[in-house]
Design goal:
There is one protein chain. This protein has a domain at 127-235: Ankyrin repeat-containing domain (Serine Threonine Protein Phosphatase 5, Tetratricopeptide repeat). Helix content is 57%, strand content 0%. The protein is built from 13 helices and no strands. The termini are far apart. The model has no long low-confidence stretch (mean pLDDT 94). InterPro entries: Ankyrin_rpt, Ankyrin_rpt-contain_sf. It holds the Pfam family Ank.
Length: 235
């Protein structure tokens, strides 16, 4: 295991384990334990601690600062939040996921999200604006292939509710099935959600369900992979 003794090695250790490790919770947890120990032994993260402590008298400012840091995926800030006892129900994972919805980063790494899950933050936390969960975000990427099956796997493994609804009533599956395009990553994500108990018939506020969207998108944007999926589900 690589030594962690400064900001750079701190971030590199977590990203490397996320991308090149065995993808097990135990392996990633071991690196998180090492990172947490390095926080105090090498005085890593003091800037974040000072910033958060200076906001303690104004909860709104504190939450706003934490939100900004999570949306920037500052991994050292994640551990500073753990150290200072930031409430676990705060939607830190959802905020971190919004970053990965917008930007791929280094080969789609999700070290910040995984560190937050390891730290016990609410995997089903939803943004105050829109009720977006991390699972919603990972089913609706604005870059690349549209979905992040590896992230979805880790979220489900850590207890994500596959039928959680946003403020408009959309489930992660509804969001996924609304994609005009369809590819292997989206298809794999579909099966991850489906196998975990995602309900295709839950209706959003506008009356649309995942099943309805899946069929209508196939009609408008034919795709052989999606056609086979619909055929399998119709049997």
């Amino acid at each position: 295991m690589a030594s962690i003794n400064d900001d750079r090695s701190f971030k590199l250790a977590l990203i490397t384990e996320d991308l090149q490790g065995d993808q097990s919770r135990d392996g990633f947890a071991a690196v998180c334990e090492q990172a947490r120990a390095a926080m105090s032994s090498h005085d890593i993260g003091s800037d974040f601690r000072r910033a958060y402590l200076s906001c303690m008298s104004d909860p709104k400012v504190l939450v706003s600062q934490i939100q900004a840091d999570m949306m920037d995926n500052y991994m050292i800030a994640v551990f500073a939040c753990m150290e200072l006892g930031v409430p676990k129900h705060f939607p830190l994972i959802a905020w971190a996921a919004l970053n990965k919805m917008d930007f791929e980063g280094l080969r789609g790494e999700i070290a910040c999200m995984r560190a937050l899950m390891w730290g016990g933050f609410d995997v089903n936390g939803q943004t105050p604006e829109g009720g977006i969960s991390a699972l919603h975000a990972m089913c609706n990427l604005k870059w690349g292939r549209g979905a992040h099956p590896r992230a979805v796997h880790h979220l489900i493994e850590n207890g994500a509710n596959v039928n959680i609804q946003s403020a408009t009533g959309d489930t992660p599956m509804t969001t996924l099935c609304g994609n005009a395009t369809w590819n292997e990553d989206i298809d794999r994500t579909f099966y991850l959600l489906f196998d975990a108990g995602a309900d295709l018939e839950i209706e959003a506020a506008d009356g649309a369900s995942a099943w309805l969207l899946l069929q209508s998108q196939q009609k408008e944007n034919p795709n052989p992979l999606r056609e086979q999926l619909i055929s399998d589900l119709s049997e």
